[in-house]
């Protein structure tokens, strides 16, 4: 018999006197988790008592460039606490800011066996002068899915493709999901962020869009080429009418016949063509690099092979070859320019992104461990008081991780401060279902966390 049960029985004998202790070997015991001292924060009230655990997330302000709003932060956590205390599908994960405001989030992946979480959280305000504080809540076994995937990516996003787990879905509310040009040819492998898409030089992913879309756009993506094929194109917007150079509106490409340059090629207004951003030296093989660009007619065009900015002249016009043909976004290459290598985290926006935005994205995705600091697990939920409880009860009910009983002849021993309570008039007593002790249909005995 463990020390805890021994203490409970001694207390029972002292305060119950002639009460008969039942045969413990015939009762079903339950030891869900060791009882922990509550760590309720005075500065940060508990967001919702139905969630029993939380962790603080501190965003390193030195990794944030400028003050940003509605920024999707990558949260990567590896913790056995999550494996032990969250739902297997991660549906109970909730992110809130320092004021208790619930933030929209998307789970890219969750390994419930090892407690590995990869999530995107729309942080409404990021500050480069002081650390931003978030809280991750979990430990609600009965709640529904708390994700709001579409609102994690605000209305300025045209499409967001994580390209993970053989899922080619667009995370935005636009639902521009990709299909495999060669069915089942595109696969996933380890990427820069979680998993990514692998292209073998014969396959591509694509989605049909309006020909008038993306004449002006901002683009972000990670690429890791495995082959130096001339004119390979990891992403493009093209039409289905032509098979020569006139087939595209714009595309990223390599020009190995021009000093291994990596550039954006754009058709603008009436089949005119222009090249932008000759990234000297081209793309390094078997290496992840982050490329971003803004192309907006009448504005300075910017391209980054982060962290180095590369500027060019203003675009000559809207990036479109024709508005009368069916258009495609293609990831993995054009006909005759198929890409061989890896692509991850492709995002297209309908308004320009600042260099501060891109630099912060780079810092976040390149090294998530230095971007955020994860605090220790805190146990709370309802305001709990730890106590020993024993005796008879009736009318057990359960709701969101809490048990409620009506006292028939219940005794409670609280240690800090010490007091002895006796209930006999069907008073309702609520406690966490994560008790340590024994229960039958009418009798309980053990250590409990009582709701104050």
Task: Please tell me about this protein's structure.
The strands form six sheets. Strands 9, 11, 12, 14, 19, 20, 21 and 25 form an eight-stranded antiparallel β-sheet that branches. The chain is built from five helices and 33 strands. It folds into three domains: 3-37 and 384-451, no CATH class; 53-151 and 374-379, Immunoglobulin-like, CATH 2.60.40; 157-350, Sandwich (Jelly Rolls), CATH 2.60.120. It has 452 residues and is mainly beta. β28 (384-399) and β29 (402-415) form a beta hairpin. The longest helix is centred in the first third of the chain and has 14 residues, at 3-16. Helix content is 9%, strand content 45%. It has helices at residues 3-16, 80-85, 149-152, 355-366, 368-371, and strands at residues 29-31, 53-59, 68-78, 94-97, 102-103, 105-111, 116-126, 132-138, 157-161, 179-180, 187-190, 195-200, 205-209, 217-225, 235-239, 248-255, 261-268, 272-279, 289-295, 302-305, 308-311, 327-331, 333-334, 337-338, 340-349, 372-374, 378-379, 384-399, 402-415, 418-423, 428-432, 436-439, 443-451.
Features of this protein?
452 residues; seven-stranded antiparallel β-sheet; mainly beta; eight-stranded antiparallel β-sheet; disordered N terminus; single chain; Jelly Rolls; 5 helices; 3 domains; Immunoglobulin-like
């Amino acid at each position: 018999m463990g020390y805890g049960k021994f203490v409970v029985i001694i207390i029972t004998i002292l305060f119950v006197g002639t009460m008969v202790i039942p045969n413990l070997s015939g009762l079903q015991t339950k030891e869900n988790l060791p009882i922990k001292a509550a760590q309720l924060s005075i500065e940060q009230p508990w967001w919702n008592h139905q969630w029993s655990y939380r962790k603080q997330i501190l965003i390193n302000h030195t990794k944030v460039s400028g003050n940003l709003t509605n920024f999707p932060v990558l949260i990567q956590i590896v913790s056995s606490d999550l494996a032990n205390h969250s739902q297997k599908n991660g549906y109970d994960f909730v992110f809130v800011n320092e004021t208790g405001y619930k933030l929209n989030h998307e789970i890219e992946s969750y390994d419930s066996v090892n407690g590995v979480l990869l999530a995107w959280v729309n942080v409404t305000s990021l500050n480069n002068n002081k650390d931003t504080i978030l809280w991750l809540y979990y430990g609600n076994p009965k709640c529904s899915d708390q994700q709001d995937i579409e609102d994690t990516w605000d209305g300025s996003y045209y499409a967001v493709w994580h390209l993970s787990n053989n899922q080619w879905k667009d995370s935005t509310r636009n639902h521009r999901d990709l299909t495999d040009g060669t069915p089942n040819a595109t696969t996933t492998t380890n990427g820069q962020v979680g998993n990514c898409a692998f292209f073998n030089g014969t396959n591509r992913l694509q989605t049909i869009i309006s020909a008038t879309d993306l004449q002006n756009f901002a683009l972000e993506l990670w690429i890791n080429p495995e082959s130096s094929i001339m004119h390979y194109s990891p992403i493009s917007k093209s039409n289905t009418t032509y098979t020569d150079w006139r087939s595209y509106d714009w595309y990223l490409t390599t020009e190995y016949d021009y000093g291994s340059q990596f550039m954006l090629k754009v058709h603008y207004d009436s089949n005119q063509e222009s090249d932008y951003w000759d990234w000297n030296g081209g793309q390094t093989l078997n290496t992840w690099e982050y490329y971003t660009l803004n192309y907006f007619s009448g504005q300075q065009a910017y391209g980054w092979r982060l962290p180095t900015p590369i500027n060019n002249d203003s675009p000559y016009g809207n990036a479109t070859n024709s508005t009368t043909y069916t258009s495609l976004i293609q990831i993995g290459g054009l006909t005759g320019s198929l890409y061989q290598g890896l692509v991850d985290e492709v995002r297209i926006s309908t308004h320009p992104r600042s260099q501060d935005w891109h630099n912060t994205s780079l810092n976040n995705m390149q090294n998530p461990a230095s971007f955020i600091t994860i605090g220790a697990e805190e146990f709370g939920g309802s305001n709990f008081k730890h106590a020993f409880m024993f005796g008879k009860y009736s009318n057990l009910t359960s709701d969101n991780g809490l048990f409620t009983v009506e006292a028939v002849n219940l005794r409670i021993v609280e240690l800090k401060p010490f007091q002895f309570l006796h209930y006999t008039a069907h008073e309702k007593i609520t406690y966490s279902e994560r008790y340590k002790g024994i229960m039958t249909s009418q009798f309980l005995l053990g250590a409990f966390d009582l709701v104050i």
